């Protein structure tokens, strides 16, 4: 099992579709883009976490973690991936390996029993089995167990070789894509196909964002064959090989899957974004153009332009009341990946100024897009909290947009903070999502509480006013006379 994992790791590190990786020498390319984790290091998520994030939004299957219960506990429901139907994906199932199981070598037997029990209880269309560090180290062959269980039960069992020590979270995304390509996509034929079938890769339906995108596609007669993986059904994923075009929402996550689908089934792909008005329009235009090249009706592009004109006019009309509040406001954007440039574009459209944008988890293509759309592209990597605090406290920025881990930096600096990462409670995709983002920014920046808490205390204004001094404290805690 160790050799299999090392071989697969090396193969994924040498990704032909990754421009950054291919720009390196052959020796450097073999080292890969991601360093293995050091046990105990705060690395922001392991490979198992990344694989679980990418696959858990498949809503009708059982997700079974093979390992100690803490692995499942730490990864369960850590994104607000919404469902329009089944909720099987929200079950937190684990084999709960104990020390006795490890010492006695019971891991594979325990896994097989867990698969059988899950199928008997929930009757899912498939079971996804996630490998964690412990079974990988003791040599449990989860691929063999999954093959045997599938033969005995008649239910597909998908092994995900996602041992946490194999790399960081982004690498786990690629391991998830590898599992889909090897075991799921192409295993079932869709009931019917159309000349406008498309897949979206790397969209996880955070707070229901795919429901802001899908209506736009439906108005154009474009059929979303499979959303990989937000609000996805197993059967749709299995038939995703019949799509005409693939759109990637985040190339850092599933570039290997997009590239492999193009090589095997001839499905062309492009990277786009549905964050911001301009980027949403550009994504729709590109989809229409590529579909026409592959046999869609010629009037699709004309209808796309008509829809874009109508939706943009409606969105700008709704944004207009917020312009004065947001114009010239300075933003620190601490996120990464596709959002490092797509959110920048959205903020600049409404007149805000980007003080800095993080390029953590961003590809070279992401960085090039930032340079194209920003006059003074101030790109930063991982910024220490004290530096971010200093920028906010010294009035170099008006608001911080980031994930939940850095919210207290903004709050300590007495500056507004808005959640832009996967833990957020509002959907920001498409035209309606952009309006929602603008409204939330305006509410945060105009909230009177920030002016109040930044106001100096009375004793900081006048030397005549001093804080109350209760005098020395006795042992009983009561001031002595």
From TrEMBL:
Residue stretches making up the Nitrogenase/oxidoreductase component domain: 46-445
Record-level GO BP terms: protein-containing complex assembly
Organism domain of life: Bacteria
SUPFAM superfamilies in the record: Helical backbone' metal receptor
Pfam families named among the record's database cross-references: Oxidored_nitro
Pathway: Cofactor biosynthesis; Fe-Mo cofactor biosynthesis
Keywords assigned by UniProt, alphabetized: Nitrogen fixation
A GO molecular-function annotation: nitrogenase activity
General function of this protein: This protein may play a role in the biosynthesis of the prosthetic group of nitrogenase (FeMo cofactor).
Family the UniProt entry places it in: Belongs to the NifD/NifK/NifE/NifN family.
Name used for this protein in its record: Nitrogenase iron-molybdenum cofactor biosynthesis protein NifE
Organism: Afifella marina DSM 2698
């Amino acid at each position: 099992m160790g050799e299999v994992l090392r071989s697969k790791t090396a193969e994924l590190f040498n990704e032909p579709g990754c421009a950054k990786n291919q720009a390196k020498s052959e020796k450097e390319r073999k080292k890969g883009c991601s360093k293995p984790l050091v046990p105990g290091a705060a690395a922001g998520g392991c490979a198992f976490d990344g694989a679980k994030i990418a696959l858990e939004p498949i809503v009708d299957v059982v997700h079974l973690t093979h390992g100690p219960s803490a692995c499942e506990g730490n990864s369960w429901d850590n994104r607000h991936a919404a469902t329009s139907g089944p909720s099987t994906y929200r079950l937190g199932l684990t084999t709960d390996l104990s020390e006795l199981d490890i010492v006695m070598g019971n891991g594979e037997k325990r896994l097989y029993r867990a698969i059988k029990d899950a199928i008997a209880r929930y009757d899912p269309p498939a079971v996804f089995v996630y490998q964690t560090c412990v079974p990988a180290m003791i040599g449990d062959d989860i691929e063999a167990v999954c093959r045997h269980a599938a033969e005995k039960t008649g239910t597909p069992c998908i092994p995900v070789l996602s041992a946490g020590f194999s790399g960081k979270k982004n690498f786990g995304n690629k391991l998830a894509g590898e599992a889909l390509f090897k075991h799921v996509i192409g295993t079932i034929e869709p009931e019917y196909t159309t000349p406008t079938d498309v897949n979206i890769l790397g969209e996880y339906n955070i707070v229901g964002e795919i429901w802001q995108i899908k209506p736009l596609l439906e108005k154009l007669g474009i059929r979303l064959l499979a959303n990989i993986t937000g609000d996805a059904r197993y059967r749709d994923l299995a038939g995703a090989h019949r799509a005409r075009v693939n759109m990637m929402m985040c190339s850092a996550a599933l570039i290997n899957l997009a590239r492999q689908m193009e090589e095997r089934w001839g499905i062309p792909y492009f990277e786009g974004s549905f964050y911001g008005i301009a980027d949403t329009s550009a994504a729709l235009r590109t989809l229409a153009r590529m579909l026409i090249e592959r046999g869609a009706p010629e009037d699709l592009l004309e209808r796309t332009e008509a829809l874009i004109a109508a939706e943009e006019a409606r969105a700008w009309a709704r944004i207009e009341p917020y312009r004065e509040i947001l114009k010239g406001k300075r933003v620190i954007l601490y996120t990464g990946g596709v959002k490092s440039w797509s959110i920048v574009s959205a903020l600049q459209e409404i007149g805000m100024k980007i003080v800095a944008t993080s390029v953590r988890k961003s590809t070279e293509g992401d960085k090039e897009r930032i340079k194209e759309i920003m006059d003074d592209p101030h790109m930063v990597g991982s910024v220490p909290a004290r530096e971010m605090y200093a920028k906010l406290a010294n009035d170099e920025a008006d608001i911080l947009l980031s994930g939940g881990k850095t919210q207290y930096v903004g709050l300590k600096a007495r500056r507004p903070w808005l959640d832009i990462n996967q833990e957020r409670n509002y959907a920001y995709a498409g035209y309606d999502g952009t309006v929602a983002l603008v409204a939330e920014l305006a509410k945060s920046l105009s909230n009177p509480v920030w002016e109040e808490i930044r106001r100096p205390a009375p004793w900081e204004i006048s030397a005549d006013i001093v804080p109350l001094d209760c005098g020395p404290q006795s042992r009983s805690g009561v001031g002595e006379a």
